[in-house]
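stage 2 :: seqdesign
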């Protein structure tokens, strides 16, 4: 378990300074869908800052299985002082037959040596991926701050990477949750781009949009976002309940199951899918 200690962070400070070997902690099971998928094709593990944590676990799994897949470890940090798991990732890449690495420092220190600590000064982006010859048919696993993810995922779509090959997890504070309070210009709700899905009808009652469910979406939250329906969310894994909304009619299934169920007549849209036609109070 990797935990970054934050200044004034109650939980991280407790873990770093008070928890000792042999202590028993009450924790929930790992959650979410940001996991390494099986296959034989190339894998790109792309992260920034402490976002290296979950993709490092994937690198461990690939090294432990002596995978012969083409594995790219692409990482960006400010400098060597903010570069966690450096020696660990280098050791794991050496265990892989087809492991490749590229490290970018945005503000390298005088003591950071090119070729030893990092490969180039700058930021990770599509021009870097193109220059390195990263295969576009790879499975991409991205983790980092929201701005980092937004820039790279939109760039990848334009670069020609299929949507189902881009897997992301945000690492860092979420955006403010102020729907209906902050004055924000947003487009009217609309049908999502692409062909209509074959599944049950999903109606967002207050937005006046009804959409057939399709396999392109992993959750009702993703469908709402694709329709520009105003939604609240934070964890996306059924923990925080920020996305809890009224379920006017219909039934849903959960994947993963929420840590605590929503109130009767409500639904957690971040981790649910429709079992039949549903009407949601959004």
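stage 2 :: out
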């Amino acid at each position: 378990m990797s935990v970054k200690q934050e200044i004034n962070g109650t939980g991280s400070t407790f873990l770093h300074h008070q928890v000792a070997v042999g202590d028993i902690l009450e924790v929930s099971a790992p959650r979410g869908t940001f996991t390494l998928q099986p296959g034989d094709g190339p894998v790109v593990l792309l992260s920034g800052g402490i976002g290296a944590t979950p993709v490092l676990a994937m690198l461990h799994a690939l090294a432990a299985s002596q995978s012969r897949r083409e594995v790219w470890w692409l990482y960006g940090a400010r400098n060597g002082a903010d570069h966690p798991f450096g020696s660990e990732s280098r050791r794991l890449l050496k265990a892989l037959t087809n492991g490749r690495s590229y490290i970018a420092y945005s503000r390298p220190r005088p003591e950071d040596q090119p070729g030893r600590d990092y490969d180039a000064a700058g930021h990770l982006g599509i021009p870097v991926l193109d220059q390195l010859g990263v295969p576009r048919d790879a499975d991409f696993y991205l983790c980092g701050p929201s701005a980092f993810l937004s820039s790279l995922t939109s760039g990848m779509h334009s670069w020609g990477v299929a949507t189902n090959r881009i897997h992301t997890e945000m690492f860092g504070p979420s955006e403010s949750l102020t729907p209906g309070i902050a004055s924000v210009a947003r487009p009217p709700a609309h049908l999502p781009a692409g062909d209509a899905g074959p599944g049950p009808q999903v109606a967002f009652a207050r937005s006046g949009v009804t959409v057939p469910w399709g396999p392109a979406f992993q959750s009702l939250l993703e469908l709402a976002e694709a329709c520009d329906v105003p939604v609240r969310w934070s964890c996306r894994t059924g923990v925080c309940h920020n996305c809890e909304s009224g379920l006017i009619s219909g039934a849903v299934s959960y994947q993963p199951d929420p840590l605590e169920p929503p109130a009767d007549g409500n639904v957690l849209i971040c981790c649910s899918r429709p079992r039949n036609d549903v009407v949601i109070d959004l």
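stage 3 :: structure notes
- The first strand starts at residue 43 and ends at 48.
- The chain is about 20% helix and 20% strand.
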